[in-house]
Amino acid sequence: MSRSQIRRQSGPTGLGSDDAGCTILHIDMDAFYASVELLTRPELVGTPVIVGGSGSRGVVLSATYEARALGVHSAMPMSRARRIAPDATVIEPQHHRYSEVSAGVMAIFNSVTPLVEPLSLDEAFLDVAGAVRRLGAPSRIGELIRARVHDEQGITCSVGVATTKFVAKLASTRAKPDGLLVVPGDEVIEFLHPLPVAALWGVGAKTEEVLVRLGLRTVGDIAHTSVETLRRALGNAAGTHLAELSWGRDPRSVTPDVGERSMGAEETFARDIDDPEVVLREFLRLSHKVAARLRSHGSVGRTVVIKVRMADFSTLTRSRTLPEPTDVAREIYDVAAELYDALGLQRVRIRLVGVRLEGLIQADGGERQLTFDVPGDAPATLDWRAAEQAADRLRARYGHSVVQPARLVDPGPGD
Amino acid sequence: MKFRIERDAFADAVTWVARTLPTRPSRPVLAGILIHTSTTGIALSSFDAETAAQVDVEATVTEEGRVLVPGRLLGDIARSLPAQPVEFAVEGSRVQVTCGRSSFTLPTLPVDEYPALPEMPSASGSIPGASFASAVSQVAIAAGRDDALPFLTGIRIEIDDTRVTLVATDRYRLAVREFNWVPATPGLDVQALAPAKTLADTAKSLASADTVNLGVSAVEPANLLGFEGNGRRTTARLLDAGFPDYRALLPKESISAAIINTAALIDSVKRVALVAERNTPLKMSFSSSEVVLRAGTGDEAQASEVLECTLDGPDIEIALNPHYLLDGLGVLDSASTRMSFTVPEKPVVITPATDDAPSFHYLLMPVRLAG
C-alpha cells in the first residue's frame, strides 16, 4: 500500500463539517506543473498531459488527472510513462513559470494569515486561528482561498482542514482534486484508523515493510500495538513517533519560513565510489546546486561544510569559514575540494557526499567588500558570479541542462 | 653538566625560548628545550619547522654538558621559582633543579636525536629594537590569516641599501612602512617574504634590545631570516612565494583629502560600529568642515555621529569595513590622521597627517554599496 492509494471516499466536503478548532489548513495545488502548463495550452485541457524531461532518462514531474487515470504518476521514468500513455502530450518543464504562479499563490496565503509554512512550490500549511473572527470558520476560509487561487491564478487546489498538520495533510490528499475535506477533532480516530500504515508521516517503504511483517497494515493496527513493541521494531524515536501519530497527536506547529540558516545538498551514489575524480565531480555538481539555491533565495553564506559518508556508514564532516560570504559555486567548490583533499582518503569507498553552506545572511543586493586586484590571485570573483547568474537565467528559460560546467556534461552512452 | 644562575635571568631565558616551542611537535624531541654550556655561561634553544630560537645567558658553569629537557614543564617551573639562585644539575638521565628550598627532578629527552639548529644568516644590517618592533607591528595588521593564499600571510621585506620597506596585504587592505637602517654591506638589494606572525612575535620580543641585527641567508633562493639582539637569536623560514607589485596599487594622487583627530576618530568609529553587524559597512560622508559617520541599515539598529575635520577637495562619501579602519588607525602613531580619496570604489589612503612625507601608508579598499 502506498500513500497514492488513499482516495477520497465521500466527496469533496466529506466527513463532518464541524470545523471548530480545526485551524490547521494544508493546501496543495492539483497537478501543479501540469495545471500551470495548461494555462498557456488551453487546447490540452481534458487530455492526458505529462510534464517532465523528455530525454531518455527524464522522469515525470507532474501529470494531469487524465494521464494519471492511465497510471502515470510523478517520479515515474518518462520512457515508461510514454509506454502506458502513448497519446499523452509531453511538455518540458518551465521552472520560472511555476515559481511565478507559486509566488502568487503564496501571496494569497499570506493575505489570510502570517502563519504560512511553505513545504514546496505548490503546498503549504496555514494556521488560520487568528483569521477566524475576520473571515469566518476554517472551512469557509479554505473555500475562500480555493476560490481566490482559481480566480487569480487559474488553477485548482485541494484543502485539508484539521486540528493537526499531519491530519490536515492527509485530508487534503483525500480531497483531491479540487476539493476540501474537514476532519473534526472528534472524528480524527475514525478517519485515521482505517488508513494504511504508509499514510503516516515518516513511514517509507522500509518502515512499511517492518510494520507489515509485524502484521500491522492499518493505522488502527499501529494504534493498538504497544509502544514497547513499536520501539523494539523501529527504534525509540520512530516507535514513539508512530504511536503518537496513530492517535492523531502531532505537536508540530505551523512555523513560518523565517529564512534558513543553512542550505545544502547531498547525493548518495548509485554504488559506492572510490575514484576521487568522481567524488570531486559530485562536489562540483552539488556546489552548483547549492549556489543556485542561494542565489534564488538572495542569500550568501560564510561557512562551507562538506560531508562524506563511507561505505560502512561512518561519516566525516569538515568545514571552513570564508573571509567573505559567497553564493558562487566556483568558490564553494574550491573550498569543498580542498576540505575533501585534506581528508587524505585513499581508496576509501564512499557512499554519500554533501555540501552545505552555513551562516547564511541576506545578500544585501550587491554590497561587497572590494579587493585589490592582486596579480597571481584567483580570477576575480565578480566574473564567476556574473557567469553563474547568466547561467541561472539561461536555465530558467531553456531548462536545467542547457548550460553547466564542462566537467558535469554527461558524455552520453557509448562514450 | 652543572651550573648556577640568577633566577630572573633563567626565567626570562626559558620563557623566551619556550615561546617558539611547537604546540604539536612533529617529533617528541622538538617539545624539548636544549641547554648547553658555553664559555660565558649557557645557551638555551628551541626549534620547530618554522622557527628556531637561541639565547645566551651568563651562568657559573661547574661542569660542561648538553641536555634536552621537556620545554613546557621547564617554562612553568622557571616562572614560578622563588627569588633565589638556581642550581641546575644533570644526574644520570634526570635533571635536578634546585632553588631555595624547592627542588624539582625532571626526566630528560634523548639529546642525540635533537636536530642541528639552522645556521644563523650573517647580518645584513641593524636597527634599534623598538623601531623595528613598531615598524613590524604597523604592517602585520594587514597580513592575511587564510593559509589558502600563502603569500598573503607574509610580510614582504625589501632592502635597498639604507632603506628597508615592509609590506603586507590581505587583498582588503595594504600596509607599507619604510625605515632607514645601517646596512652591514653597502649597496645591499634583497627581497624576502617572512611569515607575518613569526616576524611580529619576534620583533616584539626583541623590542627592548638596543640593536637588532637582521640577516637574510645569502643562499639563493633566500630561505632563512635571522634576528639577533640582546643575546637572543631567532631564525625563521621564509615563505617561498612571490608578492604582488604593491607599488602599482598605491594611488598616484588624490582628489580629496581629510584631516581628522585620530583619537576622536577611533572613538567615534568604535561607537558607530556597535550597530554594524558583521560585514555591514561604516559610511563616512565628508564635507568641508565635518564628517558624518553612519552605520546600520533598514529595520536594524542605526547610529550616526558627526566629527570635525578639514577637507581639501570635493565632498565625498565612502563605505568602509569599520574593523579594517580601526586596525589601521590603531597603529598610525600620529595625533591626526589624513585620509586621501580618489573615487568611492578606489582605495582610501590613510597616513599620519603630521608628516608631509609619511613613512607609513595604510590602503583600505572600500565596500561597494548596493544599487
What is the CATH superfamily classification of the largest domain in chain B?
DNA Polymerase III, subunit A, domain 2
Percent of residues in beta strands of chain B: 35-45%
CATH class of the largest domain in chain B: Alpha Beta
Might you state the CATH topology name of the largest domain in chain B? DNA Polymerase III, Chain A, domain 2
The largest chain-to-chain contact, stated as pair and per-chain residue counts, equals: A-B, 18 and 32 residues
Major β-sheet of chain B, in short? 9 strands, antiparallel
Number of helices of chain A: 15
Low-confidence stretches of chain A: 1-15, 376-381
Counting helices, strands and paired strands, the structural category of chain B is alpha+beta
- Total beta strands of chain B: 28
- Gross morphology of chain A is globular
What does this molecule look like?
The complex is a heterodimer of chains A (415) and B (371). Chain A is 39% helix and 20% strand. Chain A has 415 residues and is α+β, with helices and mostly antiparallel strands. Chain A folds into three domains: 1-183, Reverse transcriptase/Diguanylate cyclase domain (Alpha-Beta Plaits), CATH 3.30.70; 193-246, 5' to 3' exonuclease, C-terminal subdomain (DNA polymerase, domain 1, Orthogonal Bundle); 262-408, DNA polymerase, Y-family, little finger domain (Dna Ligase, domain 1, 2-Layer Sandwich). A five-stranded mixed β-sheet of chain A has the order 5-6-1-7-8. In chain A, strands 9, 10, 11, 12 and 13 form a five-stranded antiparallel β-sheet that branches. The model of chain A is unreliable at 1-15 and 376-381 (pLDDT under 50). With 371 residues, chain B is α+β, with helices and mostly antiparallel strands. Chain B has helices spanning 7-18, 71-80, 129-140, 196-205, 262-272, 322-330; strands spanning 2-5, 32-37, 41-47, 51-58, 60-63, 66-70, 86-91, 94-99, 102-107, 125-127, 154-160, 163-169, 173-180, 182-183, 189-195, 212-216, 224-229, 232-237, 256-261, 282-286, 290-295, 303-308, 310-312, 316-320, 336-341, 348-352, 360-364, 367-368. Chain B starts with a strand and ends with a strand. The longest helix of chain B has 12 residues, at 7-18. At the A-B interface, strand 11 and strand 14 of A face strand 28 of B. Strand 14 (368-369) of chain A pairs antiparallel with strand 28 (367-368) of chain B, so a sheet runs across the interface.
